[in-house]
TrEMBL record:
Pfam families (alphabetical): CMAS
Organism: Folsomia candida
Listed name of the protein: Cyclopropane-fatty-acyl-phospholipid synthase
PANTHER family in the record: CYCLOPROPANE-FATTY-ACYL-PHOSPHOLIPID SYNTHASE
Molecular function via GO: methyltransferase activity
Length: 247
C-alpha cells in the first residue's frame, strides 16, 4: 500500500519486503512507543498509518486531499487505531508526538516551504520528532525530473537537499540525514517491472485512456535509470553511489 521508496539495505528482495523494512526503519528512527500520537502528512493509501498503529500501538492520523486515496485508506485502516482526514496540509490541526512526511514534500512548492515547515512545527509537541523522506535532486545533475515536472506532472517540484535543509533548519534541529538513493533506484526498477507484469490488469482497472497516459511516461522513467547508470565519474560528486559508499 505504499508508493514511495522502500529500503533494501537489510536484505529485502521484493517491493513489498522493502516497504516493510522501510516502515520498520521509520519506526525505529522515530522511537515509537505505545500511546504516542503520530500524524502522517500525505498518507497515500494508508499503509504507514495501519502499520504503525498495528505494530507499535500508536494512534495515527493520516492526511490526504485525494478523495479516492482517503476512501481506500479508510477501508485499509478500518480495524486499526487510525483516523484518515481528507484535507490539505494547511488545514491540519492538533498536537502530535511524531510526524511523518513520506515523499509528499514534492507537492509543496518551494515558495511554500517556510509556511509548510512552520505548520509542521506547530503540530509537534515539545520533544517530538519529524521524519521526512524526500526525493532530492543534485544541483547541476542531468535534470530528467525537471522535464517531468514541467511537461508531465505540472505541480510536482523536486528540490535539492540544501533547499530542504535550509528551510527546515529554521524550524527544527536536524539530527540525522540518511541517503537512500540506492534504495530509491532499486524501488523504481521494481515499480517498472510490476507495471509491465500487470499491464493487462492495470488497463482493465484504469481504463485505456488513463493507461495510455501513464504508459507514455514509461520510456522516460527508463531513461532516468539509464542516465543514473551512465553518470560520469568525474567530477567526483557525480560519481555513481554504491551502497558501500554510503554506509
Ligand atoms: C507519492 S505519494 C506518497 C504517499 C505515502 N506517503 C506513501 O509513502 O505511500 C504523495 C502523497 O501526498 C499527498 N498530497 C499531495 N498534495 C497534498 C496536500 N496538499 N496536502 C496533503 N497531502 C498531499 C497525496 O495525496 C499522496 O498521498
Amino acid at each position: 500500500m505504499q508508493h514511495s521508496s522502500g529500503y533494501f539495505a537489510t536484505g529485502a528482495s521484493t517491493f513489498a519486503e522493502a516497504q516493510v523494512e522501510k516502515l520498520k526503519l521509520i519506526a525505529s528512527k522515530l522511537q515509537l512507543r505505545p500511546g504516542m500520537t503520530l500524524i502522517d502528512v500525505g498518507c497515500g493509501f494508508g499503509g504507514l498509518p495501519k502499520f504503525m498503529a498495528d505494530n507499535y500501538g500508536v494512534s495515527v492520523t493520516g492526511v490526504t486531499p485525494s478523495d479516492s486515496m482517503a476512501k481506500t485508506a479508510r477501508n485499509h485502516c478500518c480495524r486499526s487505531q487510525v483516523t484518515i482526514l481528507q484535507q490539505d496540509w494547511r488545514k491540519m490541526e492538533g498536537k502530535f508526538d511524531r510526524i511523518t512526511v513520506i515523499e509528499m514534500l514534492d507537492h509543496v512548492r518551494k515558495q511554500n516551504y517556510d509556511e509548510f515547515f512552520r505548520k509542521i512545527q506547530s503540530l509537534l509537541k515539545p520533544g517530538g520528532r519529524v521524519l521526512l523522506q524526500h526525493y532530492a535532486m543534485d544541483p547541476g545533475h542531468f535534470h530528467f525530473t525537471e522535464f517531468l515536472c514541467k511537461y508531465q506532472y505540472g505541480l510536482i517540484y523536486f528540490s535539492t537537499l540544501s533547499d530542504v535543509v535550509s528551510h527546515a533548519s529554521n524550524y527544527f534541529h536536524i539530527s540525522n540525514v540518511h541517503d537512500i538513493s540506492c534504495d530509491a533506484e532499486e524501488t523504481y526498477k521494481h515499480f517498472i517491472d510490476m507495471v509491465e507484469t500487470n499491464r493487462d490488469k492495470m488497463t482493465t482497472l484504469a481504463g485505456p485512456k488513463v493507461w495510455k497516459a501513464f504508459e507514455s511516461r514509461m520510456p522516460w522513467r527508463k531513461v532516468a535509470l539509464n542516465a543514473e547508470r551512465s553518470r560520469p565519474t568525474k567530477p567526483s560528486w557525480f560519481a555513481r553511489m554504491t551502497r558501500e559508499g554510503l554506509h
